[in-house]
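How it folds:
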Amino acid sequence: MDTLVVHEVTQRGLERGLALLTPQERDVFVINNLDVYYEMEGGFEDHIPNAPEEFDWLEDTLARIGDLPSLRLIRTLRKMPNAPLEQTDPLYERYAERRDVRWELLTSYFRERGVALE
């Protein structure tokens, strides 16, 4: 079984950019990076317009792993670039609340393909 070390993938993604990661590494990066970003900032409204390719990949990843509720939240947030925080904060919170579910789906998805996350 192959292993992807999450913090190493995230570090490489931050240093080198999304395009230089493998597709599997991109899946890990887009989910983990956004979770960390949310923890640090309490939202990611300023990150959405600055990283469209990351959010495009995130949408594909969420669809692949079967996290349709998170996918709907991200798509909705991307359509609300200038909405007041009173409207978007609850959506950010709901996305954050799904973190454990998202990681379990991602971990299961990779495990089925012979890849462990650590």
Q: What stands out?
A: DSSP finds six helices and two strands in the chain. The CA atoms of residues 55 and 90 lie 19 Å apart. The mean pLDDT is 94. The longest strand covers residues 2-4.
